[in-house]
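Dear U.,

For the methods section draft, I wanted the exact inputs and outputs in one place so we can describe them consistently. I've listed the two proteins in the order they'll appear in the manuscript figures. Please don't edit the token lines directly; just add comments below if something needs changing.

First protein:
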Amino acid sequence: MNKFEKNVQSKNNDIVDSGLAFVVGFLGLTVIYVIPHIFEIVGRLW
């Protein structure tokens, strides 16, 4: 074993971290997509 394998900074499961990153990214893009549609719908009502 090398020194990096002995001194691990994070022992989290990589699958959990990857899943969390996917969900956060997906939600961020969803918000970016939904906000203009809300403005469009509100603009049509006026």
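Second protein (the one for the lower panel):
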Amino acid sequence: MRAQFVLSEIGVGLRRNLTMTFAVIVSVALSLALFGGSLLMREQVSTMKGYWYDKVNVSIFLCNKNDKETAANCAKGAVTEAQKQEIESELKQMNIVESVHFETSEEAYKHYKEQFGDSPLADSLTPDQMQESFRIKLKDPERYDVISTAFAARPGVQEVQDQKALVDDLFNLLNGMNFAALGVMTLMLIVALMLIVNTVRVSAFSRRRETGIMRLVGASSFYIQMPFIMEAAIAGLLGAGFACVLLVSGQYFLVNNWLVDKIDVINFIGWDAVLAKLPLVLAIGLLMPAFAAFFALRKYLKV
């Protein structure tokens, strides 16, 4: 009998505040969709960092005959064989270096033609104009400064370049977008909580006579509060369900059927990452409104 009464009261409350309940569902859905999307974005950035940082190298570009007037370290002309051997020997002795590859000017010219063959400058370049270089793979990509400090001012070295810096701007942009999404999510959660509290207040005020009678006949506070808490929890759970639908749809339509075909250089996260976030979204959608309603009722159900 008690369970039937609680369920009937939940139905009455949801019908009485249909408009506000719908607003709660929409705001919870959007805020939790942004929350889940932010978690997935963070995981995607971490995956991309692991993938790209593993591939980037530190490059030590050596002086050639054309750098004599453009670089201070190349004032004495092109790098000598002794200088190249000395640099290579020191690199191989460093414990932070995983591997060292020497790229000749002919190899550099070939790679340039493969990547920029359509450029107007491609036909005017010759192999002897390309720079020789050492391509260094570090055990820890963050230790670039050790290589730069050791070789940047070395005679015969035109420049030390860290390829990691080329992708850091992309990761900074993605992290900025993630923080922006988190900011919007926080604002939406605040709006959702305010709507939940107001909905519970209106519902409690409209049924103050019934709750007063229940209090007078000896009903416990928990028994009186339960219908209101369940109303908020059901609305939040429905919103969380719609958020899960948005996340799954985003993975299927946006990532799997569009971005994967458009951007083939990124290893996108899969369904396992998305499905792992859904229980958390549902749990937050259920518990957050319930706790908000519980604290709001402590004042408005006093008789």
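Candidate sentences for the figure legend, describing the second protein: The chain has two domains: 3-52+168-301, 57-162. Residues 3-52+168-301 form one domain.

Thanks,
Y.
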